[in-house]
């Protein structure tokens, strides 16, 4: 039997609120706070998700749907190298927009150790990476796992707040230069360096990660 419209709306509000609260307060943030942010009662939360783990699993599945959509759009660029750049940019921006995701993935690894979320990325990227190497545009010793790991690491800067997104672009440019074979042209950096005071402010803003 289909859910009533208000039930569907409550489910979506809870997922949206959970992403925000987990990003702010960590994976063990109070469920009562999630319900409050969603403007529903705690009983409504438990009708939708019987436990914290069930809520985390729902967040993970929703995010993986988004990943599948992202990956499906990679590969239509002029060159394999352009597809590598596009993938790292898209994945990093997705993580910037959802800073709760790394801690959700970590918890999923505890809830269900058989999960292999990175396979969604690496399966699509392996052929592209190999072609970029064959074209002479990518270092011979780089793998698709390296590409996913680097994009994930860079995307974690979203934990520090939206005003530091420009630093993501700068760090991405530096990493992309490191992926190029010797003699390839350097990329201009997208932003100026962060100063020491700003870096310390970033550290103070970083929420709990587990």
UniProtKB/TrEMBL annotation:
DNA-binding region: 30-49
Cited InterPro entries: Homeodomain-like_sf (IPR009057), HTH-type_TetR-like_transc_reg (IPR050109), HTH_TetR (IPR001647), Tet_transcr_reg_TetR-rel_C_sf (IPR036271)
Organism of derivation: Labedella gwakjiensis
Pfam families xrefs: TetR_N
Residue span(s) of domain HTH tetR-type: 8-67
SUPFAM superfamilies linked to this entry: Homeodomain-like (SSF46689), Tetracyclin repressor-like, C-terminal domain (SSF48498)
Domain of life (superkingdom): Bacteria
Name of the protein in question: TetR family transcriptional regulator
Cleaved signal peptide residues: none
GO molecular function: DNA-binding transcription factor activity; transcription cis-regulatory region binding
Keywords from the named record: DNA-binding, Transcription, Transcription regulation
